[in-house]
Design goal:
Elements (H helix, E strand, L loop, with lengths): L2 H18 L2 E7 L3 H12 L4 E5 L17 E5 L3 H6 L5 E4 L2 E5 H15 L2 E4 L1 E8 L5 E8 H5 L7 E10 L6 H9 L19 H11 L2 E3 L2 E3 L2 H7 L9 H19 L1
Parallel strand pairs: 1-2, 1-9, 2-6, 9-11
Antiparallel strand pairs: 3-5, 4-5, 7-8, 8-9, 10-11
Helix pairs in contact: 2-4, 2-9, 7-8, 7-9
This protein binds ligand 48F.
The site of ligand 48F has 28 residues, from helix 2, strand 2 and strand 7.
Length: 258
């Protein structure tokens, strides 16, 4: 057992995936439920997709369930996507199901990776790459530890045809585009409106409508969609997140193939 061989195996295997991710079809910021679902459907269609997640763990808001009770609730509309991932659902009442949030994360992650999605944890998307007409053309990446320790280290970049913002409540990529490019997003006033207080039913309905291209090459996904368009949050109900991920994938696929 040679420690150097173990070290080489890890480094070479990781670097192969990282190099493969520098020129891709779709870059996804955030490995929460919506980002993972989007990645899965894109990979299933044969597109090259990589997900960059800031934290050590993937799953975004899922491990904490509702107030640290590690369960999530999914309504009828999200059932078929949960089934596609092979996740167990317990019927709670008509049209409403409960899932173990840890099983959900494990299953989503495994299915994504088996479909060919490259998932990188501990990497933050800190900016976007732009080209003519300020079109979004990729993501700017750095180790999350660099930001946390406030080190002055320049990032690296990956090019993609489309970027999906699945960063959750803070809508980080949309805000970067608004601030740094001074861009008018495709919202009423051209800005990120910020999410509104909790109203599960309205929030869930709005989520699908708000999942769209908000700037050339940038697509909202999951909670980002409601944060960008000023719609309510919805708490630990996840059907909308799954459907939003699927819709973001469909929009991104069309753009990649256009
Ligand atoms: O927050 P998150 O789970 O987003 P989501 O997919 O799902 C929302 C639900 O979890 C919940 C909810 C349910 O109704 O409202 O909140 O919309 O996952 C977002 C992920 O993005 C990562 C973050 O660590 C989290 O895992 N993230 C955020 N900013 C960045 C990032 C960034 N700049 N670069 C990389 N990852």
């Amino acid at each position: 057992m040679d420690e150097v061989i173990i070290s080489r195996a890890i480094t070479e295997s990781f670097m192969k995936d990282f190099l493969d991710s520098l020129n891709i079809d779709v870059a996804i910021a955030g490995a929460g439920p919506s980002g993972l679902v989007a990645a899965y459907y894109l990979a299933k269609k044969g597109l090259k997709v990589s997900v960059f997640e800031r934290h050590l763990k993937v799953g975004g808001g899922m491990p904490g369930g509702g107030m640290m009770f590690n369960r999530i609730v999914v309504q009828e509309e999200g059932k078929s996507i949960m089934k596609e991932f092979g996740i167990g659902l317990k019927k709670y009442r008509k049209g409403l199901y409960v899932a173990d949030s840890l099983e959900t994360i494990g299953a989503m992650c495994a299915r994504c990776i088996r479909e060919g999605v490259k998932i990188f944890n501990l990497i933050t998307v800190e900016d976007v790459v732009i080209r003519e007409d300020d079109r979004i053309s990729g993501v700017v990446l750095n180790w999350s530890a660099v930001g946390w320790s406030k080190l002055h280290v320049d990032p690296l970049a990956a090019k993609s045809k489309v970027v999906i913002d699945a960063t959750g409540h803070d809508a980080e990529i949309a805000r970067i585009v608004e601030k740094k490019i001074g861009a008018k997003l495709f919202t009423e006033d051209g800005k990120v409106k910020g999410e509104r207080s909790m109203w599960a039913e309205v929030g869930e309905k709005a989520l699908l409508e708000n999942t769209k291209e908000i700037y050339p090459g940038l697509i909202t996904c999951g909670m980002v969609a409601n944060a960008v368009f000023g719609s309510p949050r919805m708490g630990a109900i996840f059907g909308g997140m799954l459907l939003s991920g699927k819709k973001a994938a469909q929009i991104a696929e069309k753009k990649c193939k256009a």
